[in-house]
Design a protein that fits this description.
The chain is mostly beta strands. The protein has a single domain, classed as Protocatechuate 3,4-Dioxygenase, subunit A. It has five helices and 13 strands. Strands 3, 6, 11, 12 and 13 form a five-stranded mixed beta sheet that branches. The longest helix is centred in the first third of the chain and has 5 residues, at about 55. This is Protocatechuate 3,4-dioxygenase subunit beta. InterPro entries: Intradiol_dOase_C, Intradiol_dOase_core, Intradiol_RC_Dioxygenase, PCDO_beta_N, Protocat_dOase_b. Belongs to the intradiol ring-cleavage dioxygenase family.
């Protein structure tokens, strides 16, 4: 009997059928245009490790993990950051379209000038002392989340000549156990940099790429205060949001 290419292998050589990765929706581990993927992804079959009590039961990802201002990235310092204030909101749903409540949603992003508050980000764009660029919240009973933040700027990176990343916000979603984590990126509509960005173009199906796009939401926009963008996240199924592999998560944007 042949081994399915997406099966997880145990140390004894047996395989365990699991969720088959949709190769039209999710980016491949090795994408020629995204050069550093060749250095990161596994070269051998995956090994299925048993989940022990520690991984299954801790840490508990509940409301007590979220601070009062964690969802508002503009109020985490003494003064407000520079840039266009925006509201980012949406709903987390499963493959059947049902809302997924009590999901820990984390975000991280560059500031309005396109720079991360990170020791390894040293391109000559200004750092904003009033913007850290990280936040978290829990989805409510209807699977809804909401952040207030600053629209991030584009930034250069060394993947290819004159390479610039489109404006984006990183999202991380945790399930009921610490080992249940999905990571993806949200983009903004009509960005002129999509044509040359290998991360965006590594998703094979153009329709799947569109599911990484937020949409301007005038009904949620608050007059004289903040523009709003809606982005719904579908965890599985035909309309699932494209997610990254763990290898891409560890060294993204380098």
């Amino acid at each position: 009997m042949s081994t399915p290419p997406d099966a997880a292998h145990t140390q004894s050589g047996l395989y365990v059928p699991g969720y088959v990765r949709d190769h039209d929706t999710h980016p491949p581990l090795d994408f020629p245009g995204y050069k550093s993927t060749a250095l990161r992804h596994p070269k051998r079959p995956l090994t299925l490790l048993p989940h022990m009590l520690t991984e299954v039961t801790s840490p508990v990802l509940g409301q007590d993990r979220v601070g009062e201002l964690d969802h508002d990235l503009t109020r985490q310092h003494e003064e407000e950051p520079q840039g266009q204030r925006i509201i980012v909101h949406g709903q987390v749903r499963d493959s059947g379209g049902k809302p997924v409540p009590s999901t820990l949603v984390e975000v991280w992003q560059a500031n309005a000038g396109g720079r991360y508050r990170h020791a390894r980000d040293n391109w000559p764009a200004p750092l904003d002392p009033h913007f850290t660029g990280v936040g978290r919240t829990m989805t409510d009973a209807e699977g809804r989340y909401r952040f207030v933040t600053i629209r991030p700027g584009a930034y250069p990176w060394g993947n290819h000549p004159n390479a610039w990343r489109p404006a984006h916000i990183h999202f991380s979603l945790f399930g009921r156990a610490f080992t249940q984590r999905l990571v993806t990126q949200m983009y903004f509509p009509d960005d002129p940099l999509f044509f040359q960005d290998p991360m965006w173009n590594s998703v094979p199906d153009p329709r799947a790429r569109e599911r990484m796009l937020s949409s301007y939401d005038h009904d949620t926009t608050e007059p004289s205060w903040a523009l709003a963008y809606r982005w719904d996240i579908v965890l599985r199924g035909r309309e699932q949001t494209p997610f990254e592999s763990e290898e891409e998560i560890l060294e993204d944007d380098e």
